[in-house]
Amino acid sequence: MLKLSNPSWLYRLAPRSSSDVERVSSKEQSSSDVSRQSLESQNEADRLVNGQEWMKPRTHISKTMKWYWWCSLFCNILLLLLSGTLITQVFKNLGLNELKCAAMLSASSPALDSVEYEFIKFQGALDAENRFKGAPNDDLDQAWDEIVNMGRIRVSKSEFDKLGKPTKGSVQYPDGSFQGGLEVFHQLHCLNYLRQSTYPEYYEMEEHKPEAFHDSAKTRRLHLDHCIDMLRQAITCYGDTGIVTASWVEGREGPYPDFSTWHKCRKLEPLSQYTDMYAGPPDLKKPDDAFSLSEPPV
C-alpha cells in the first residue's frame, strides 16, 4: 500500500467546502482591511509630516489666541490711561500744595490764599541775641511795632458767613463787608504787652507809655490775664511737635536742652501785606441805627 509522507498537497488539491471558502474570504477581507488601514495611516502620517492637515486646527486656535491677545492688550492700555488720568485728577483735586493743605488744616479764613511757608531754625539759646530781646529801647520797640500789625481788614459777606459768627451786631462797613483782623497779630500784641509789663519802670514813663498802660489797674490786670490765656490756647491749639534734644556740656552734670529746633513756619510778611491790602476805614463811627449787643460776645 502506497504511503503518503505529506498528504497536505492532497488537501490543497481537494475541493473546498463552503465554510472553508467563507473562512478564506474572511481572512482575505481582513487582510485587505488591514492593508487599507495601514495605507490610510501612512497617508495621514505623510500629511502630518508634510504640514498639511495638522495645521488646520492650529490655524483656528492661533486666530482665537490672537484675538484674545489684542483684546488683552487693548484693555491693559485702556486701564493704564484711565489710571493715569485718575491719578492726575486726584493730584489736582488734592492739590498737594501748601495752600490747599493750609486750607484743610485751618479754620476758614480769607487770608489763607496769602499763606507762604519757610523753614526756620529757632534761636533757643538762653544768651542768643536778636532785635526782639533785651532791655527796652527805641530800636527794640520799633522792631515789635513792625510785626504787631493790628490793622482792621474788610471781610466779605460770603467769607464772613464761613466764620461761624452771627452777622447781627457785628461791625459792618458801608460797602457791606464786615470788620475783621488776623489772629496772629492779636497774639503778637498780647506777647508784646506781656513783654512791656515785665519792664514797668520803663514803660510807666510817660514818654514810653503804651496806650494799654493808660487803662485802670483793674483793666490792665484783666488785659494781662486775657493775653496770657489767649497765648495758652494758641500754643496748645498748634501742638508744636518739634523735638527738643539735649547735649552734654562741660561744667554741667545733667543733659542740657537744645531749644534751637527747626520748624516749618508761615511767613509773617505776606500776612501783614494782606492786612494792608484789605484795610478797612481807620476811624469807624457807630451808626445811629446799628444793632448793639447787650454784652460783649463770649
From TrEMBL:
<keyword id="KW-0812">Transmembrane</keyword>
<protein>
    <recommendedName>
        <fullName>Tat pathway signal sequence</fullName>
    </recommendedName>
</protein>
<dbReference type="Pfam" id="PF11807">
    <property type="entry name" value="UstYa"/>
</dbReference>
<feature type="region of interest" description="Disordered">
    <location>
        <begin position="278"/>
        <end position="298"/>
    </location>
</feature>
<feature type="compositionally biased region" description="Low complexity">
    <location>
        <begin position="27"/>
        <end position="42"/>
    </location>
</feature>
<comment type="similarity">
    <text>Belongs to the ustYa family.</text>
</comment>
<keyword id="KW-0472">Membrane</keyword>
<feature type="transmembrane region" description="Helical">
    <location>
        <begin position="67"/>
        <end position="91"/>
    </location>
</feature>
<dbReference type="InterPro" id="IPR021765">
    <property type="entry name" value="UstYa-like"/>
</dbReference>
<feature type="region of interest" description="Disordered">
    <location>
        <begin position="15"/>
        <end position="44"/>
    </location>
</feature>
<keyword id="KW-1133">Transmembrane helix</keyword>
<dbReference type="GO" id="GO:0043386">
    <property type="term" value="P:mycotoxin biosynthetic process"/>
</dbReference>
<comment type="pathway">
    <text>Mycotoxin biosynthesis.</text>
</comment>
